[in-house]
Design goal:
The chain is of the alpha+beta class and 230 residues long. 41% of the residues lie in helices and 13% in strands. It has eight helices and four strands. The mean pLDDT is 94.
Length: 230
């Protein structure tokens, strides 16, 4: 599972999937630097390149996992710095639920199994027990910019594709940054940056049941309109 450097771009994009179970195997820093260098070729508005990457492993990441989990179980409210807006409704909520159904079926988690469902949620707050977590932030002076979130999304997409091309798996998530004070403290994130997103990264575990799941995608016919074509 995972890509290889000799794959075509199409093979990387079409083969990539979100990985939620990882081998307990370190990821070399040099490999992550190579992946980041590729990701940073993504376009940004007027070349602003507003993003920063905080790459965390080992004891600091364990402290973030522990702090996130303890605060969530203690009922601490969400303190995400980049807000997600209102809960999803309509077709967007349907897709969210559909994704969860596919994953729960793969994991064998029954609808009424509250303990297993909670354990699944807590995996997210632990960054899915991945050996590496990449926190994406942007310069606070750009807070409120329309372009900055787009640019950060572009570089994050490039990051997960580049990682896949080197045999690594990732899952983009928000659970790992829900408790921003914990993340900011243990990752040493300066006050002039806003925490936006997290990416769990590592070597995919081929035996983890959810890893082979390919989430249902919309067709081009559903998503696109073509104007002016014959």
């Amino acid at each position: 599972m995972g890509g290889t450097p000799d794959q075509t771009y199409a093979e990387v994009v079409l083969g990539r999937r979100s990985i939620r179970g990882y081998l307990k195997k370190p990821v070399p820093r040099a490999l992550i630097e190579e992946i980041l260098e590729m990701a940073m070729r993504s376009p940004s508005s007027m070349n602003t390149q507003p993003y920063h990457f905080h790459v965390i492993t080992g004891e600091p990441l364990d402290r973030i996992r522990k702090g996130n989990t303890e605060r969530i179980l203690a009922g601490e409210p969400d303190s995400r710095e980049f807000r997600r807006g209102e809960p999803f409704k309509g077709v967007h909520r349907d897709r969210q639920v559909g994704c969860a159904i596919q994953l729960f079926e793969a994991m064998g988690i029954a609808r009424d199994d509250k303990e297993a469902r909670q354990d699944w949620v807590l995996r997210g707050f632990r960054q899915f027990d991945a050996p590496v977590c990449v926190i994406i932030t942007y310069d606070r002076e750009l807070d409120g910019s329309d372009d900055t979130p787009f640019d950060c999304g572009a570089v994050t997409t490039a990051l997960v594709n580049a990682a896949w091309s080197r045999g690594l798996g990732c899952v983009i998530n928000s659970q790992g940054i829900m408790q921003s004070p914990v993340v900011r403290e243990h990752a040493g994130i300066p006050d002039d940056q806003v925490i936006m997103k997290a990416v769990a990264m590592g070597w995919p575990d081929p035996d983890f049941p959810a890893n082979p799941v390919k989430i249902t995608r919309r067709s081009v016919a559903e998503a696109a309109r073509f104007v002016g074509f014959d």
